[in-house]
Amino acid sequence: MLDTYAHRAGRLYPRRWQFAVATLLVFLALLLLMSTRMPSAVYIGVLLAGPLIAISWGLVCLCVWFEPTRGKLQTGWLITHLPKPVRSILRWYFAIFLLLWFVLGVGAWPLLAIWDNAWSNIRWSGP
């Protein structure tokens, strides 16, 4: 898994700033949607923002952490001063975190948003 991350990070590293700008643009678009005061627009924006932010920010983290020659978990000052077993554990921790980040952000976020909307419609459909 670490080799796969390093390989992909090496290919995507030149585009890391584009991913960061994409994340910022999603936040700004969501802010604009919230200022419209249209509940359906806000709902759709929130539904889409989770996966878009998870993908773009996750790719930034992938590039910054796992790039083979410049990644912070490869050549950073702190990681190079740690014992080798601790380095390995730390890299695996961040790899698993990033995997969960993508799974929850892309898969669970929309499901939870839909479920919450359905639940709030049932719960508040009073007189």
Record keyword descriptors for this entry.
single chain; 127 residues; mainly alpha; 6 helices; elongated
Q: State the oligomer.
A: single chain
Rg on CA atoms, Å: 19 Å
Through-space gap between termini: 54 Å
Number of individual domains: 1
Low-pLDDT segments, ≥5 res: none
**Biggest sheet descriptor:** none
Strand proportion, as a percent range, falls in under 5%
Shape by Cα distribution: elongated
Number of β-strand runs:
0
Order of helices and strands: HHHHHH
- Average of pLDDT: 89
How does the helix and strand content classify structurally? mainly alpha
What is the tally of helical segments?
6
The level of helicity is: over 70%
Would you spell out the secondary-structure blueprint of this structure?
Elements: H1 2-12, H2 16-35, H3 39-66, H4 72-75, H5 77-80, H6 84-123
Describe this entry's structure for a reader.
- By secondary structure, this protein is mostly helical.
- The chain has one domain.
- The protein is built from 6 helices and no strands.
- Helix 1 packs across helix 3 (39-66), helix 2 (16-35) packs antiparallel against helix 3 (39-66) and helix 3 (39-66) packs antiparallel against helix 6 (84-123).
- It is elongated and about 55 Å long.
- 15% of the residues are buried.
- The model has no long low-confidence stretch (mean pLDDT 89).
Overview in brief:
It is built from six helices and no strands. It has 127 residues and is mainly alpha-helical.
